[in-house]
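Got a spare moment? Tell me how you read both lines of this record:
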Amino acid sequence: MPSRTDKRDQLVLGSSLTGFVIDFIDGVDAKGINPKTYPYNWNQEHSATEYACLRAHLNAAQRIVQEGLRTALILEDDVDWDVSIKPQLQTFAHAVRTLQNTVYAPTESPYGDEWDILWLGHCGASCKTEQPFYMIPNDPTLPKPTHLPTYYHGPPENVRPDSTRLVCTLQDAACTPAYAMSYRGAQRILAALSVNPSGFADKVQTGDQIDLELGRMCKSGLLKCFAPYPALAGTYRSAGLSSKGTDQSGHDRAAQIEPATSWGLVYSTMLNIKHILQGERVVHSTWSDVDHPVINPEDIHFESGYIYSCRPEHDSNPVSTTEKEVVNESVFADEASFTDEP
């Protein structure tokens, strides 16, 4: 929301220290919503604030289509990311292109062209198991299992070693702190969630919160979606009252002051702002029991990944084939990145 100048401060500063620029889209105030804008099938059990959040995401999709942007990264206002976000995304881009079979094909996007949503930040993601996974072993930016945030769902058990991050064709996901949207994806989202939801009723149930809507569109095949698991983006709350992290609750002055907290990231950008601004060559981990509690970001490297395919359910032994080639290319979209503030 425009009134949350504190959150704009943290996004502008954090992005400036990790090498990208944010373009803001205002959040939507539930009090100012015209009732005629609600889709015909909106679930009336949801609050006006939840619809305002949905509308803010639709406004981002509208801008992508209006300005003809090929891709845009949409960030919610409490997002956090690892200080190594650029090499992380280089590895992720190679993984997504491998899953699209476009590693060597010329494409406009470094992530390939056959996608609608890249769900980079989430609180749970399930994979389409009939499609192969891309495994990134010994990821130094992957939290230990005891430090992972609560994920509502994930890939099949025993598929992913604790030190491995996987990338998969997405079946469903929850929460939207960070995701990329393509031009084609933005068109389909506007059509299904605003312009003509009745026309897509045979493909996807709509009328709910934005993350449920997008997840169902991924599951139905209306959107082609990919995601990392665990997520690449996390969330952050600066020091203050617990209500500071959300605009959906009041301001309780009697509550206890809580410390700054980041969830889901080993080398949080927000928690390392002080170290970076002081000119330190190293950053500090969120937890002390990691392999490298203090590290120079230039020393964070990622191993070559490999394809992992699940056999039919009656055969529990997986088949993996190594993919040795890694594409060394910049993976930030050339167009503006957006942050919406539901």
Notes: Residues 5-234 form one domain.
